[in-house]
């Protein structure tokens, strides 16, 4: 099958080439836009990543060109208009899980860095400054960690936090009995926000969760709360989070995802002027840590993404049931 691969980074190309099961891959650094649809001329499928917006107009154009399959090389599918795709009889497949531990471990890396300030110590010591001033953190042991969304990543995160000796509260529309047996206590979202020292978001972005963190929910948090988001940027109303950082309601913010990340993340913008004033404001806080959507970025996850992507393509090619299909609801 001939497949146009959008938003290709060198690591995407390396892993996809290594695990290719015999397809013709056209690699493009360009993201998918209405203007870049034509790069998929003659292709049966396109392969896209988290920030490629596969909107109705783009789907219509791709359909008119003969594209029949959207291959997401990621888990989240909030960037695809599944209803429009269904109407055009275009199938969508995704990689539902790729090393969920990778993202959970990255969330913990954000917590430990923000708390113990290892990033500041690293720079300080290299300058010959061995002072401890302003490096004090807090023990995670006996603190309460609140986990919003206990699917594959949230579940892995809960287990790590239990290992630190945290009390783990969770909120999800579905409860996981195995986690309960492991010691996780499910509660309401409001109670979780009221009681937690650290809150980590692991639910998908959808109509129910968009801006789940806003002025009202921030107001329920304890002063100095640590908020971690490795899920999707729009779970947090960023302007409201900035206001909460100014008052100290939020004591720490660690984000691997950002509401307007499409224009920034996965690109080297060194030497250019970043025109996004909101992320510039976020970066000015010393208690904010931003990473560029790298939670998934481990060798294990990249392998799993490539292997599952080709299994999805092969399944479609053979007319087999699509086990990783995204179906419009
Ligand atoms: P998952 O589907 O296994 O789990 C999501 C959980 O959220 C489920 O248990 C679901 O019931 C719950 N949920 C759904 N709606 C909810 C709501 N309204 N309130 C509370 N909980 C709700 O997904 P996953 O594999 O654990 O991934 C979670 C998210 O992580 C993905 O949606 C994606 O956005 C993000 N992600 C980020 C990276 C990264 O590199 N930073 C990588 C992969 C995934």
Description:
The protein is of the alpha/beta class. The chain has 2 domains: 2-98 and 299-318, Rossmann fold (3-Layer(aba) Sandwich); 100-290, 3-Layer(aba) Sandwich (Rossmann fold), CATH 3.40.50. The chain has helices at residues 10-19, 56-64, 82-87, 100-116, 118-126, 152-163, 177-182, 189-195, 215-220, 238-247, 277-284, 299-317; strands at 2-5, 24-27, 45-48, 69-72, 91-93, 144-148, 167-171, 185-186, 198-201, 225-229, 250-255, 288-290. It has a 7-stranded parallel sheet, sandwiched between helices. Strands 2-1-3-4-5 form a 5-stranded parallel sheet. Helix 1 (10-19) links the parallel strand 1 and strand 2. The radius of gyration is 21 Å and the shape is globular. The two termini are 28 Å apart. The mean pLDDT is 96. The site of nicotinamide-adenine-dinucleotide (NAD) has 30 residues, from helix 4 and helix 6. Nicotinamide-adenine-dinucleotide (NAD) binds at residues 75-76, 97, 100, 103, 148-154, 171-174, 202-205, 208-209, 230-232, 256-257, 293, 295-296.
**Shape, principal axes of CA atoms:** globular
Structural class computed from helices and strand pairing: alpha/beta
- N/C terminus separation: 28 Å
Helical content stands at 25-40%
Unreliable segments (pLDDT under 50, ≥5 consecutive)?
Answer: none
Strand order of the largest sheet: 8-7-6-9-10-11-12
User: Helix and strand succession?
Assistant: EHEEHEHEHHEHEHEHEHEHEHEH
- Distinct ligands, ions and cofactors found in the model: nicotinamide-adenine-dinucleotide
Number of strands: 12
Give the biggest sheet. Answer: 7 strands, parallel
CATH architecture of the largest domain: 3-Layer(aba) Sandwich
CATH level-4 homologous superfamily of the largest domain: NAD(P)-binding Rossmann-like Domain
What is the C-level CATH assignment of the largest domain? Alpha Beta
- In the CATH hierarchy, the third-tier topology of the largest domain is known as Rossmann fold
Strand content: 5-15%
Overall mean pLDDT stands at: 96
Counting structural domains, the number is 2
Gyration radius, in Å: 21 Å
Count of helices?
12
């Amino acid at each position: 099958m001939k497949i146009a691969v959008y938003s290709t980074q060198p690591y995407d190309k390396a892993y996809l080439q290594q695990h290719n099961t015999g397809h013709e891959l056209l690699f493009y650094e360009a993201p998918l836009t209405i203007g870049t649809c034509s790069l998929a001329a003659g292709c049966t499928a396109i392969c896209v990543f988290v920030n490629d917006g596969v909107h109705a107009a783009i789907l219509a154009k791709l359909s008119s060109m003969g594209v029949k399959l959207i291959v997401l090389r990621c888990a989240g599918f909030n960037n695809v208009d599944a209803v429009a795709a269904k109407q055009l009889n275009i199938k969508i497949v995704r990689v539902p899980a790729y090393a969920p531990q990778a993202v959970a471990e990255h969330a913990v890396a954000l917590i430990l860095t923000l708390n113990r300030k290892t990033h500041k110590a690293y720079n300080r010591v290299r300058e010959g400054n061995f002072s401890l001033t302003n490096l004090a953190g807090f023990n995670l042991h006996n603190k309460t960690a609140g986990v919003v969304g206990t699917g594959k990543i949230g579940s892995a995160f809960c287990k790590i936090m239990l290992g630190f000796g945290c009390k783990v509260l969770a909120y999800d529309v579905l409860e996981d009995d195995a986690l309960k047996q492991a010691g996780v206590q499910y509660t309401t979202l409001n109670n979780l926000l009221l009681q937690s020292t650290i809150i980590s978001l692991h639910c998908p972005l959808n109509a129910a969760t968009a801006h789940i963190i806003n002025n009202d929910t921030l107001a329920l948090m304890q002063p100095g709360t640590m908020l971690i988001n490795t899920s999707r940027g729009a779970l947090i109303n960023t302007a409201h989070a900035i206001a909460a950082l100014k008052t100290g309601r939020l004591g720490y913010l660690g984000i691997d995802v950002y509401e307007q990340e499409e224009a920034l993340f996965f690109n080297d913008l060194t030497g250019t002027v970043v025109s996004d004033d909101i992320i510039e404001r976020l970066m000015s806080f010393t208690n904010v840590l931003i990473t560029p959507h790298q939670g998934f970025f481990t060798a294990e996850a990249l392998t799993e993404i490539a292997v599952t992507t080709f299994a999805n393509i092969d399944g479609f090619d053979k007319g087999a049931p699509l086990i990783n299909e995204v179906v419009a609801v």
